[in-house]
Design goal:
2 copies of one chain form a homodimer. Chain A has 838 residues and is mostly helical. Chain A is built from 33 helices and 12 strands. In chain A, helix 29 links the parallel strand 10 and strand 11. The radius of gyration of chain A is 35 Å and the shape is elongated. Chains A and B meet through helix 1, helix 9, strand 3, helix 10 and helix 18 of A and helix 1, helix 9, strand 3, helix 10 and helix 18 of B. Chains A, B: InterPro entries: 4Fe4S_Fe-S-bd, CBS_dom_sf, Cl-channel_core, Cl_channel_volt-gated, ClC.
């Protein structure tokens, strides 16, 4: 379903070599250009203002050399993203205002009002979906799952292009401008990464360092932090959230990059607001004003814990619901077919449904439907209590808080309705194929849930719980903060939402309740469902290694030998091209193991499939075939030139027909003949038609068959030759594991080094291979089927009556015997390498 | 100087095997015990309350199985550490109160006052130093450098024992109780790790999972977070700080462990304070009350930036000063000798000096000497302005703020004196051999510096900078917060001090200034000096890999082949014991490479030195020698029993003398004879004296020589035998690199996998080895000698006229030729392994 062209990053060895080659080329190029520059300088020296020019050139050089520095890149990235974030926010605000204005202007007629209220978002969402679909379908969705996969080392093409950037930014603005329950945080991670990739490409015009792959990945990691940081003006939370969401292993030396860029970005983002006179000074985005001296009582902690646990269940439910909707639509083939035809119908229908339900004079009045997401959050984090003793209090509702008050309906009912409706609406809305995230909607729902609990507590204990002297009433806004952090933490499986919440509200007084609730929510949610991003990764079938869960001991007990594939495809050093051909036909692995010989099985390295294919095509490729045929044709010409009788068209056509029949027969017989060889027959046939037929008027089918047989013979000869690995790139140190390595360690190594596969060796002998697939299966098998294991965890111990070291020793002994028997002839022929190695 | 017994963790392969063996044993043992338990159950079944007992056993089983879960361990750890932290704080507070009480009670006589003021800390510090020295010298210092090394994979013995725990806790309490400028944060990281290690040992009585090494390291990482978390009641900052300070690569899946344990610990720590009626509810440790609506003006940012940059220089200076003091004392041999003799003199002298200078009626009155560290910090973070227009304001000084006010001296002078004096005092005090950290003193100095800048700003702009309408006066307390975070960040090279500061003060309103200052401070400090912990690591010469600095491009250009050692010690599969013997004599490496043969150099694995030694001793060890000698003796007895003449004592003694002479001569000749063999000669000689001499009265020297020659011959025979690797543990997959791997990548891999050494191979052929030493040299060489490289960065490209792939291909060709020539005999003898591998 998802357009995805994955390619795993090359293994260390190959990559290192290519990089070295590139650097070498680069240095040569540079030295050439520098030489020409010095020549220029010499010329100028004779001119008038030589010194001046030299100085200019030096300055230029210095500046260019500085451009390579990380911090310049990070500042540019931060600046760019802050601007993008601010502009997007500004446009969204204008869009939302326009909707309100239209809605407000038509208050004379409810039907017109409804039309305006509904049409506006439908148009925007449809435009967004269509625009994204046409320009870059990769821009759909949050982008965090894809970034996670990219940072894992998988190259997803088209995900980091300028087209995607434009589609994502414009699509996101329209989608959020519609007022649907969607978030901008996930897409901003993607946009920041796009920015970083594009900036990196642009900067590579100045310096060579931008072409380094590992550096680019470091920069992408920093960009993710910038994305979250400039979206919420939360530098610390942004860095932590991006680490938690995208990385498995994090290099602490990259830490400062994220902090630096995110801080700069958040700073500029807030400064823009000050310059635009929106704010007086730099403050938090959703500033709260809870009292500082007594933020909460110790006895309120159980309520916070309840919020945490409930949020955990809620978060898991949200992820489940989201997946269910996607799977339902995919499974119902009738719906799916219809929707695939009319791609824009699904977004429009969903938008219509959601906006109809939130129509303020309709059902919307019971769920504060007229508030935008931002307004709802501001009101929910309000530090006043809405209800006391169950009755709505008579304080003066400032502006938006009014929306929560309904003359007939209790504030609790409004809140419950809000939570329930927004919950499924958000889960549904995030499945729309537009650029959108789910963080902010979930955050708002969490805040509403927290507020509900807080208001209940306030109603239950009108004078607070604290008994000594002073009365400290309960602050429901604090509960809202806790709820927001807990639910968003549960959905994304992160702890750093706690930090984001502090930075968003500008108050850290509720740190302990927030931390407790977030941890509890995480504990519950992680044991029930994968995170939203992992869920999307699974739905999209992106190549990713699942995380190890919390404290599963069995990972320490499952060994690589239990999960490895023992039937490894390999090629030997002294194999012939036929073996190569067969191996390439039967397997689909991207790299093949190169062993010394089939008996010793000593692993020498790995070769990429493409390399082998090029080897084979060199041996049997068009040039060599042509050469052979030319030789044959020359010989034929010589032979036939004596009896050249220009024949009739008719005869040659009949012959052609016969030939075609025979070719078909031959290919039917030789089932092992590849498509390449089949087309080669046609090629030969064409050649014969064009070269031989003009020479010989009516080539008998037997003659043609004779030629074919000759060619086949030649081909067989070629295939029987030993492979010459001279011009072949070999990775001499593919990653190796031992058969006793535990699953836990294997997972660690795979995710650390971003491996695709690893060979399992025993004293240099290749005995198996483990790829990402096996590992994923093993982990998921042992995670999901917890009680009844798919494979017994101690399978490796069952058949090990003899200890492994003994086995090894015997193997070694055999190896050794073999060498002993061969040591005599070797001693007679001291080779060059012998001298070299000593 | 430091007692340090380092052993690198074993390589993956070896470790995996041992672990597997252990688990297997464990499961056998467990199954046996379970069988016995079921037998017990059967017996009980006949009894009365069988059901009851079965239930009990099941509950017990369930509980025990739960004990293995991580969260139980983490809760216990958090609880324990919170208690320890609280008790330590409580004791420190009592100690400090006692000093105040003594000082206050003696206010009639200044001299007595002085005596009391000075004697008290001297006694405490001397006791602390002495106690630590006697019980566990490993407890000295902060412990963070050691933890960093341990988490790197190096096992430092004696660092995680119960003795060290006791020494550290008591030593720390006494040291901090003395009122010296020392911190508890570093030691608490160590104490938490000690707790975790001891708890892990204790818990391993219940479940086997606690014996897993990688799990223990994960737990230690969590413990470090707990240490910081419960010290400052700062869970988030604690986790981040501990990650930054101790890890190079961080597994995000361990993140929750740190958060969980640190939150729980911080929670309990604060709850204890509430229960003890110190606090009304859970709040921050150093709560501030800055205004929320307008925390700072945009135009104040340059001042914050100045604080950041100045703190950067200050931090670097602090690290430099600290190292200078240590090195000065070490270099001055006279001082060093004297101090080594009287170990307690140095702490006493330093304490005397510091406490004399802070004596309140003396010089201390100009630097708020009577305030403890905590009190100073509280006053420095005060939200009122101390001075306006340069004159001390007439507000009512509550309690401690009074100390900063001096009738004659300006508040600015007091602050400057405080900063300068505390700066060198802290740098000096942290060199005292007691358990102590430097974080808190530096934090206080930073706060004072920030306060100084803030007060200056307040004096400069008495009505604030903001011009529109409302007057917002400048808050010097905010500057103090920024300064504290910046200076402590600069000294420790961390960004997370920003988070710690928010959690300590309970206010996050100054987030952007703090972040900007911290990042600037880090940028400056990191480019000037290593962090305090890295500096200590270098002083103590702990085995650690230095970090790669900020954006050094040359790391991408240096290749492994530039730094590797080409002269690798190896053993071949068909080597004889003599080679083994020679290799063991000449090298000192912990592991040796095993190659197929000297010509092919194909790497088969690595063997530990100990394994080889045991092989050699099996071949030439006492049992085999004894056996041989017994055989010889039996033969001799047979021969001599016919002519047995009991001889005189005198003759045998002369003979002994001669023998001794000859032995000496023989050993002098054979310089290559090891000590083991030399002692063996003595052994033989003793044997002859006891066995042969009683048989033969006057053994002529020539006869003895004959025996010796025979034995030597036997030995030579033994040495010429081929090594039998049957009972030898071989790591079949030691880590391999390619010669083109960049230094950057090598560093990453070494720090990721905690490697000690890696072999450099080319198509399976061993061509070099890189160990931690070479890597460290290369990194430090290219870091310190920045302009003039120790080795040219592109050395690897100079001699590469021919491309590497060509080279490889030629090598491969040779290898291939060799096999081609040997393929015939192999085909005649199809071995077992041949069948197996197909």
């Amino acid at each position: 379903q998802t357009p995805m062209y994955g390619r795993y990053t090359q293994d260390l060895g190959v990559y290192a070599k290519e990089e070295a080659a590139r650097l070498r080329e680069g240095s040569q190029r540079r030295s050439v250009s520098e030489r020409s520059r010095t020549l220029d300088l010499l010329e100028y020296d004779k001119g008038r203002c030589a010194k001046c020019r030299i100085c200019t050139v030096r300055c230029q050089k210095f500046l260019i050399s500085r451009v390579g520095e990380d911090w310049i890149f990070l500042i540019l990235l931060g600046l760019l993203m802050a601007l993008v974030s601010w502009v997007v926010d500004f446009c969204i605000a204008i869009c939302l205002q326009a909707q309100k204005w239209m809605y407000g202007g038509l208050d004379s007629n409810v039907f017109l009002q409804y039309l305006a209220w509904v049409t506006y978002p439908v148009v925007l969402i449809t435009f967004s979906a269509g625009f994204t679909q046409i320009l870059a379908p990769q821009a759909v969705g949050s982008g965090i799952p894809e970034m996670k996969t990219i940072l894992r080392g998988v190259v997803l093409k088209e995900y980091l292009t300028f087209k995607t950037f434009v589609a994502k930014v414009i699509g996101l603005t329209c989608a959020l401008g519609s007022g649907m329950p969607l978030g901008k945080e996930g897409p901003f991670v993607h946009i920041a990464s796009l920015c970083a990739a594009l900036l990196s490409k642009f900067m590579s015009l100045f310096g060579g360092i931008y072409e380094n792959e590992s550096r680019n990945i470091e920069m992408l990691a920093a960009a993710c932090a910038v994305g979250v940081g400039c979206c919420f003006a939360a530098p610390i939370g942004g860095v932590l959230f991006s680490i938690e969401v995208t990385s498995t292993f994090f290099a602490v030396r990259n830490y400062w990059r994220g902090f630096f860029a995110a801080t700069f970005s958040a700073f500029i983002f807030r400064v823009l607001a000050v310059w635009n006179r929106d704010e007086e000074t730099i403050t938090a985005l959703f500033k709260t004003r809870f009292r500082l001296d007594f933020p909460f009582d110790l006895q309120e902690l159980p309520a916070f814990a309840v919020i945490g646990i409930a949020s955990g269940f809620g978060g898991a439910l949200f992820v489940y619901l989201n997946r269910l909707i996607v799977q339902f639509i995919r499974k119902q083939k009738a719906i799916n077919k219809f929707l695939m035809k009319k791609r824009l119908l699904y977004p429009a229908l969903v938008t219509l449904l959601v906006s109809t339900l939130t129509f303020p004079p309709g059902f919307g009045q019971f769920m504060a439907g007229r508030l935008t997401q931002k307004e709802s959050l501001v009101t929910l984090l309000d530090n006043r209590t809405w209800a006391k003793q169950g009755i709505a209090e008579e304080f003066d509702y400032i502006s938006h808080s009014q929306a929560w008050k309904h003359p007939q309906v209790n504030v609790f009912v409004t809140l419950v309705l809000f939570i329930v409706m927004k919950f499924w609406m958000s889960a549904l809305a995030t499945t729309i194929p537009v650029p959108c995230g789910a963080f902010m909607p979930v955050f708002v729902i969490g805040a509403a849930f927290g507020r509900l609990v807080g208001e209940s507590m306030a109603a239950w204990f009108p004078d607070g719980i604290h008994t000594d002297g002073t009365i400290y009433p309960i602050v429901p806004g604090g509960y809202a903060v806790v709820g927001a952090a807990a639910l968003s933490g549960a959905v994304t499986h992160t702890v750093s939402t706690a930090v984001i919440v502090f930075e968003l509200t500008g108050q850290i007084s509720h740190i302990l309740p927030v931390m407790i609730a977030v941890i509890l929510a995480n504990a519950v949610a992680q044991s029930l469902q994968p995170s939203l991003y992992d869920s999307i990764i699974r739905i999209k079938k992106l190549p990713y290694l699942p995380e190890l869960g919390w404290g599963h001991h069995e990972y320490y007990n499952i060994r690589v030998e239990d999960i490895m594939v023992r039937d490894v495809r390999y090629i030997t050093l002294n194999c012939c091209y036929r073996d190569l051909h067969d191996v390439l036909l039967t397997g689909h692995l991207k790299t093949l193991a190169l062993v010394e010989s089939a008996e010793s099985m000593i692993l020498l390295g790995s070769i990429e499939r493409a390399q082998l294919q090029s080897l084979l095509s060199q041996q049997l490729g068009r040039p060599r075939r042509l050469e052979y045929i030319r030789e044959r044709a020359a010989a034929e010409k010589k032979r036939l030139s004596v009896v050249s009788n220009p024949g009739s068209e008719d005869g040659s056509q009949r012959a052609n027909h016969e030939v075609r029949f025979q070719v078909r027969e031959a290919t039917a017989r030789g089932a092992h003949i590849s498509r390449a060889r089949f087309s080669w027959f046609f090629f030969c046939w064409q050649f014969f038609c064009s070269v031989i037929c003009p020479l010989q008027s009516s080539p008998s089918s037997s003659l043609l068959l004779f030629y074919f047989l000759q060619i086949a013979e030649w081909e067989e000869q070629q295939l029987d030759e030993q492979v010459n690995f001279n011009n072949c790139k070999i990775d001499p140190a593919p990653f190796q594991l031992v058969e006793r390595t535990s699953l836990h360690k294997t997972h660690t190594i795979f995710s650390l080094l971003g491996l695709d596969h690893a060979y399992v060796t025993s004293i240099g002998r290749l005995i198996g291979v483990v790829s990402l697939k096996e590992l994923r299966k093993a982990i998921e098998g042992s995670v999901t089927v917890k009680g009844v294991k798919v494979r017994p965890p101690l399978a490796s111990f069952r058949d090990s009556g003899t200890s492994s070291s003994e086995n090894e020793a015997t193997e070694l002994h055999k190896l050794w015997d073999r060498h002993k028997s061969m040591s005599l002839p070797r001693e007679h022929v001291p080779s060059d390498s012998d001298e070299k190695s000593q």
